[in-house]
Structure formats: C-alpha cells, structure tokens
Amino acid sequence: MTTVLDDFSDPAPWRVIASTQVSGTIRDEGDALCLDYDFNGVSGYVGMQRDIAIEYPENYRFDFALRGASPANDLQFKLVDASGDNVWWVNRPKYAFPTEWTHVRYKKRHIGKAWGPSPDATLRASAKLEFTLNNSAGGKGRVCFDDLRFSALPPDVATPRIVSAQASIKTRDAANAIDGDATTTWSAGRAPQRLTLDLGAATEFGGLRLDWAPNAHPLTYAVLASEDGRTWRTLRDVVGSDGGRDWIATPESEARFVAIETRGAAPSEVALADVLIEPLAFAATPNDFVASVAKDQPRGRFPRGFSGEQAYWTILGVDGGTEQGLIGEDGAVEAGKAGFSIEPFVRVDDTLLSWADVAASQTLQDGYLPIPTVEWTHPDAALRTTAFAHRDSSGARTSMIVRYSLRNPGATAREYTLALAVQPFQVNPPSQFLNTTGGVSRIDALAIDDDGVVRVNGRARAFSTQPPAASFATAFDAGMASAHLAANDAPTARFAEDPTGLASGALLYRWRLAPGETREVALMLPLTGDAFCEDGMPCSAEARQAAVAEDWRAKLDGVRFVVPEEGQALVDTLRTSLAHQLISRVGPRLQPGTRSYGRSWIRDGAMIAEGLLRMGREDAVREYLDWYAPFQFDNGKVPCCVDDRGSDPVPENDSHGELIFAIADYARHTGDEAFVRRMWPHVRGAFDYMETLRASERTEANRAINPAFYGMMPASISHEGYSAKPMHSYWDNAWALRGYKDAVWIAERLGEREDAVRMAAARDEFRNDFDDSLRAAARRHGIDYLPGAAELGDFDPTSTTIALAPGGEQHRLPQDLLRNTFERYWREFVQRRDGRREWKDYTPYEWRNVGAFVRLGWRDRAWEGVRFFFDDRAPRGWNQWGEVVSRTPRKPFFLGDLPHAWVASDFMRSALDMFAYR
C-alpha cells in the first residue's frame, strides 16, 4: 500500500530551519517546492521541515523526486518523534545533486537512529519530517523536491534462495551449480553460455560467490539481472578472472532472475561447481565486501582490521604540516588521509611470511621521538620498518620516508624476497567510521615502473631508492597481490585498471643473505607536493632520519626533566605527547586528531594550548588563537568547532569561556600585551554573549522548574555524555566561570576599567549562582557528590576535574561534595584495576583525575593512576592513547583517533602537575 505524503503543491505546511548565519527560503515551483539556501561562509545546516504523523509497519520505504543546482553538500532525510528529541535519518555525505528530476528511494534498512535519549533504536512513530542540507562543500544553491510517497512492504527476505537453474544450451547438469556439492559441476564447454538462476520472486541481494572447477574458468563473463527473465541489465562485468573462487559485489541489487553469461572463447572447458547468492550485508559497503572476502582467506592475507581483529597505528608528520600519514602496528604505512597503503611481506625460500606469522614489536627512536619502528621477529627472518616525515627548506613539500631493513637471523644462507605490497586499504581500519571512514581506499588504476615508481590513480605516489628485482600490478578479478605472493606466481603486468577500485600490486626485492647479513631499501611517499632531494642535503634515508631526529630533539627538549629511572617513561611520553599534538595540527589549527577528529574544537584547543604553553610552545598557541578568534559569530558566540567549512553553529556553551581562557593563559605566559589588545574585542564579545545566555536562565520561572537551572548556562551538548539530549552541564558552567574570571583579569590588565567593573559584578553573581546550583542539584537528587548535570545528578568526576583545573575553584566548591566525588572515583578505579568491577571500556580523558589527585594531595593515588593508564598505551612502545580503551583490545571497536591529541594534552597537563602547578 502506497500513500502520497506530500505532492509539494502547497508550501504552507513547510518551514525553513537553519543554523546561525545560514539563510534559506522555500519557493513554489509549479508542482514542486525548492529550497534556496546560502551558507554565507559559515558551517551549519539549512532545511525544510513539516509536521506529519507517521506510524511505521514492520517494513516500509519512502520515495521522492529530487533535482538541484547545488554544491556537493550532505543530503539528510530526517524523521523526528513527538518529543523532538529522537531523530532517525538517512545521511548522504557530499551528495551529487542531479540537475534533472531523479527518483530517490529509502528503505527501512537505510534509516537509522541519528541521536536521541530513547534507548529504543527502532523507528515506530514520527511527528516531523525534514530535508536538510549540511555544509560539506558550502556555498549556495537550490534543491527541489516532489512526490513524497510512503509504502508499506512485506517483510524482507534475509537470505536469498535459488529455486532453480537453467542453462541456455539445454543440459541436465545446470542444477549441479546450485546443489551445494563441490564435486558436481555445470559444464558449459568453451563457447559462450548463460546460466539463469530463478530466485522465485523479486529478491534483494548483495552479491554472488562462484566456485569454478580447477582450471575450468572463463576469463571473461558477466553477471546479469532481470525482473521478468526477458529484459536484462548488467550488474557486473568480470575480466581476467583467475578462477577458483570469485567474489562478486552487487550492492543494493534486486531481481527475480540472475544470470552468469560467459563471454568469448574460454581457454578450456568451463565448469561451475557452485554458486551462492549472497545477502545484502555481503557487500553493503566496500568494507563489508572486503571483510566477506577476507573470511574465506588465511589470516595474514588481508590487514588485521578486515580479519575481525582490532588494529593500532601511529601518526607520521611534521610540526604544523597540512597532511599526515600513518604506520600500523604490523608495519603497513598509509600515504596521507584516507590513502592507499604499502604492506610488507617476506618470502624465505618457499615460505611467505605476513604479519600473522611473526611477533611484532613497536618502538620510538630514543624512546620518545616521533620516528616509529615496527620490528618483525621470526626464526627465519627479521624485518625492521622505520618511518618518519620531513619537509623541504621552503616548507611547501613534505614526504614520508619508510626504511625496510631485512636480516637473516639464522645460521645458514637463505634466499629472501622483500615484497612491498601496494594495497587498496588504509592503515586506518574499517572500525573507524566517523568523518573519515577507514578501510578501503580505492585504487582504480595502478602502475609500477621499472625503477620502482608507483603511480596510484595516475599520480606518482611512491619512489623506491633502488629498482626492484621485479614488480607487478593486478586487478581484483585476477587475484589480489597477497594471493599472488602466497602462490609465488607474480604476474608480469605492471599496470592494472580496476572498476571495483581494488587494484593491488607489489615491488619485489630479492637477495641471498648470509647469516647475520642485512639489506635495506627505502621508499619516499610524498604527502604534499612532489618528491624532493635538495642540494646540500644527503639523499640517503639514514642521513634524512638523522636530520629529522635532530630537528625533533630541538623541538621537544626545550623543557628539561631530571628524573630517576622509574620516571623516565613518564618524561618520554610527555615529549612524545608534545610531538603528537604538534603533528596533529593542520597549519595553525590545533585539533584532537587527523582522521575521525580532523577539526578544531576550541574545547580541545584551549586545553591543548595550556599544555603547549607549559612546554614552551607559545608560538603554536599564538598562531592558533590568531586563526580561531576571527571565526566568532557576529553576536559574540564562539563556535564550538571550526574546520574547512567555517564556523560550526551547534550550541556548546563551554566554548565562550574556553576562548577567553586560552587568550588569558597565553598572556599570563608571555606578557604579550599587544596580542591581548588585539584579542580584546573577541573577549568582550564572548563575555557579552555569555551574559545573554545567563540572563535567559536567570528567571523566576526557571527557578520554579528546577532551582539548579537558575543563572546557569543553558542546556547544551558540549559534554560527550549529553550528545543524546542537551543538559545544564556543570562542565559548561565551570568553563563559563573560568571565562568570567579571565575576562575581568584581561580588562584590568588592559586598563578597561568600566568593563572590568561590570565584568567583575557578573563574575561574582555567576559564581554565587554556580555554587547555589551545585547544592540545589545535590539536594534534588539526594547525592553526596558533585553532579555532572543539573537534570541528571550523574556521577562524572572526569568532567568535574575542570572546576579544579583550569577552573581554579577547588577551595570554593562544596568541600564535602568535592571530597566525596574523588573518593568514590578512587574506590571505583581500584575495583576496576583489581578486576572486581565489570567494565567494557573507558576513555583516557580520565588522566584528568591524576591531576585532581595531585591537587587534593593524594600523591600515592596519583602514581597508581599513572601506572594503570600507562599499561593501556596502544601500542605501549609508541607512547600514546586513543580516545577509547577497550577491555577486549583485539575485538574491533571505534577508538576515536590514535594518537588522540586531546587525550595527550590531558596526560601532559596531569604529568606536569606532578612536577609543579599554579
């Protein structure tokens, strides 16, 4: 049953929704409605929304028509429940808007829970519907909508079923291809033939798995689909099949009939032993498809992340660069964000070794420099992979250098091949889904020259310091590079095109190594600009590594620490954390990561900046504030986040105080009055905006609803625990108070007496309201600790630490609630540490509690925290943490970014507190 929800002939039910400084207008265009929009140089969203109640059956779909003249912004289709808090959506990032009317269909499986406090992820009823454009390209444009329909559908078929098979040339053995018996085959001869599979009814499916009899496969064939058995469409052309098992991805397919049609004369008799129609999940995404293939392969043939195991990695880059690479714990390197990877394999005589066959360990040069090494240990081979990044003298070009040292650890001479496989996979694994989806990185064309130059998708992306003994490129249908390496049957082709985006290849270096002998080769992978080797600078990888190491020592050793041996790991990790924060920058932009979190939040930036100032990097903080402050909105609102799209308008009410604090903290460290004078309009604007926020909550009506709301910052989602629904967060209010105090300090320093007086009055009033609110919330919820949010009375000591540092309110907070908060945290910490408390994961933001212990005078507890968190470095030898630590570290999970620069700053500030704090 299909219902027309809106024919778009009447604009009256629709309204424009838009974020700060974004404009939109709904226009009637005959039988359609159009949204004209302009992002006006800021980030955010704009859309059209209407009220419409929908009850959802077991299965359903939406259909509508769309056309537009628009940059490739995100297209979002949203359904909102009656509370307004729970949202379901279909999000299509960087949508290519068609200029002609195009039919769009969203089925139940496409619609997922976006956010909301309800634990029920199933969409049962909605009250509002909207079409939204989210800024990913910016600019302005027009998008038109028409003919919105809703259909109730029968239940989905979870597993496709082949009812019958029929060959184009009548034979009795067509059924052998679907009997599940590998010993029986459909024999098709050498001439072109078609095998037609009947699924019994129109069925959704995601791909096919074909098992050809040994040496009995066609080189070329097609997979076709039809609804009626007469009109056919091509789902996939296979060219150059290597036989055996073929995996065919046909995502989002639906048909009753599927056919396999051989093309051209086969080199031998064709025989198909088995065919399976795979469900939608088989190839729902490129990552799902590769994982499906990897399940059929020996461990080590594909990267760890596709084999059901969590992978770890670290960052490669320069201080304040604009692009960063990665190296994985198993030795693969990624050439820039979302880029392809190069993965090592070693053949010893007739045995191929992969990451799955060796013991891998990770270290940093000198124990702290951002020059990571992966060491493979095996009785027959030892491989050392060291990677680093460097820039030219102009700063315009940066490259990664990867050194591979292969040694014979045995007592007899052996034949070795070092194979550097060019893979269509990122080091960033498929479990990483936010902003930069990890996993597959398309290689549509791959060429490897005689001299070891690797061209990916037409660009020279890797250069070998010496010509390889051999090289090859291969398309997915002809077998991936790892399969050819395992079979020791390297193809001769050095160029491959692949419409699946899964081309791969390898550079092969062959040596006969005497016992203890080592041979080395290096690759240069440009990150920005072309490969380079400047006059006056030795081109050897060893010399470049020495120069980069010396440069990093100068950057990281500015603050010297003299500690006993037991404190050396802490100091080394301090310096590595500083390096990771500098590498994670994009130009002046401080950001918590380079993949999932490649944006600049003022929250993260202000706290990273505090650590950088304490480690002597005032220049980086000044550059950051000069860059961030101009993104402030016209009304004084400080954006929570800024990226290439501009200012993010999402209300996060900690941001205003954080900008003021960062400016004041820079001034306290440098005494740079000219800079503070230049920043004064931003400070005053942020202060005045906080005053409007505070006034909106400082009403008797609000006090009657909940006395703890009175005079506080309005509810927002700034604290991670409140992303489902905004709350009156004491994280926000602690930062607001810090901002009020620092605004007064700056005004007095600049001689702005009138402003200083009014700001001081507001500061004192807000501080008193803050104290009253904490007590009111504790009474309302019957708790004996400091709450995280006024509505919830939740226990969140890691958030509460902000009131101590940098909040500076330790001695003004209710002392009984303060002590109870961190006593409870300590008890629960010990229970978790000692295995007496169940836990799934935690975030290393908990490093902030170590600083709180220091300020509370709990020296021994601070060291216990250090020991516990140090055990969860990932990997330990690389001195870093992700945003999440899992109790099951090899089970795939989302870990944020690795390293996570904001976590690194939490560690840094707490570690520095152990030496001295203000």
What structural keywords apply?
Jelly Rolls, alpha+beta, 8-stranded antiparallel β-sheet, 918 residues, 9-stranded antiparallel β-sheet, Beta-galactosidase, Chain A, domain 5, 4 domains
Outline the structure in words.
It is a single chain. By secondary structure, the chain is α+β, with helices and mostly antiparallel strands. It has four domains: 2-152, Jelly Rolls (Sandwich); 164-284, Galactose-binding domain-like (Jelly Rolls, Sandwich); 311-551, Beta-galactosidase, Chain A, domain 5 (Distorted Sandwich); 558-913, Glycosyltransferase (Alpha/alpha barrel). Helices cover 25% and strands 30% of the residues. The protein has 16 helices and 41 strands. The strands form seven sheets. It has a nine-stranded antiparallel sheet, covered by helices on one side. Strands 20, 21, 22, 23, 24, 29, 33 and 35 form an eight-stranded antiparallel sheet that branches. A hairpin with a 6-residue loop joins strand 27 and strand 28 (398-407). Helix 6 packs antiparallel against helix 7 (655-670) and helix 14 (847-856) packs parallel to helix 16 (901-913).
Tell me the strand order in the biggest sheet.
25-26-27-28-36-32-31-30-34
What would you call the quaternary organization?
single chain
User: Using only CA atoms, what is the Rg?
Assistant: 30 Å
CATH topology of the largest domain: Glycosyltransferase
Mean pLDDT: 96
Residue fraction in strands: 25-35%
